[in-house]
Every structure is written in structure tokens, then in C-alpha cells.
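Marked as duplicate of an earlier ticket. Keeping the data here for the record.
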Amino acid sequence: MLVNWAYIKRDTFFHRLDPRARIIFMLCALIALGFIPGRGTGFWDMRVVLVFLGLAFLQIIVARITWRQMRRFWIIITIVAVMLSLVTLLTGRGAAGVYDPSMEHVIGSFKILGLSIVLSAERISYLITQMMRIMTFAALSVVIPYTIDPALYGIAFKGLGLGDKVAYAMDLAFRFIPTLGRDMQIIMDAQRARGFELEAGRGTNLLQRIRNFAPLLIPLTIGAVVEGEEISDAMDLRGFGVGKRTWLPRLTYQTIDWIYIGFGVLIVAVGIVAKRAGYGGLWIPPWLYG
């Protein structure tokens, strides 16, 4: 059985928006921030990124999504953001096209495990901006699964012009991660009931902890494959894809939805003009130059 994200029906401005309008605005914001071509794809000015980050968290606040609901999500995103940013800081790679490495303003250098690490104003600014961009991408995207009724996933993507098969595939993709998490928890509980030590005891190192969780991957993978086969068989038995599919609920754009979509398109248009004018490159705070 597939499960969903922690959707809670609420009477908020954001929940009353058409699901398609929310998805279109999210895509517009993501494109404007991270995918407009130019020197450094998207915006790398942390002041601009901060505006997008504020807009993303404003959506979360308006939708009344609580920290308790999103705690695990933000823990994972924070770990990923820190790891990716530190790799760039320590290696000096990954910032191709954002700034010229030959023109770095070196602040100092030190050694870690025999590796020579160079700190520069550009690397530090890139580190901060990259973390902010990752957090912004996550914040813009997370409101979608937490505010759209799971019963409307397929209908919303179909309403965006996607085919029936693609729309249903997107529906299943949104349900995949929470379903996998549910299955993982069931497997962990079953292993604990059989006396398998998952948690690390005293004197157990990090490598041993990872090894303890390795046996869980096999039943988790097999379960995911079997569940996928069951869904495929159920769809074939119901003749999915044989003819044109109808959807019982109907979505209708309201005036506020068009305004919201228009705001998203405006953000993209302004972003394109700003990038063409040469704005949006890596911004370095003056105090970093020392």
C-alpha cells in the first residue's frame, strides 16, 4: 500500500490555490533562481538568493506547515547542503563559471590531514551562497507535497498537459519516498523484534554503525521491486493506458490562481532581464576582503 507525505487539509490561502498554480509558480521560481543561463547559471548574489529564500519560507508560514512535520526533511537537506558546500570549499572545485579562480583574494591557508586548504573571499562567499541556494530550492519544493491533496497529484499533472502515463508516473514518484520510509521503518522494527542490534552500543565506531544497517537494504530493495510489480499488474488488469482516461474531480483556475501564475512568470522575466544586463553574479561582502 502506498503512503503519502504528511498532508493536512487546512483552510489557508495557499491550500485554496489550484494545485497547478502552485506547481507552475514553484517551477518559475526554481528556473529564475537556478537555471537562467549566464555567468554562473542562475543567481549567485546572496542578497538575491535571500529574497527567494524569504519568499519560500513565507509560503511555508502561510501554509502553516509546522517544524514537527518537516523536521526530518530539513535535517537531511542541511546535511546534504553542508557536505556539498564543504567539498567545494576544501577542493576549490565546482564553482566553474561563477568566479575566476586565478583572481581569488586569498585570506589564509591551513592543512588538514596533509591537504593544503586555501581560504579566499570568493570561496567563502560561494560556500554561503551555495548553502542558501540549496535551502531555497528545498523550501520552494517542499510546500508541494505538504499542501496538495494526494488524490489530486495525477489530476494536477494531467491538467498541466502531461499524458496519462506520465501524470500517473509523477503521482507514484511523489508517493515513492514516504512509502520507502514506511517500509524501512517496518523492516527495522521486524529486525529489532528478532534481536538484531541496529543501534550502536558503547565502543562501536561509525563504520560498524553503517554495517549494522547494510542488511536492511536487501529486503528494502526487494520489497520496493515487488510493490512496483504489484502496482504494474493492478494497472494492467484495469486496462490503464488502453484508451483515453477520464478523471472524476475537475480543477478550475480562479482569478487568484492566474495572479499567482503571473507573479511567477514575472519573476522569470525579471530574472532573464537582470542576467542579460550582467547582474546576479557572485557577490562578495566587502568585509571579507579585510
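See parent ticket for discussion. The first strand starts at residue 106 and ends at 112.
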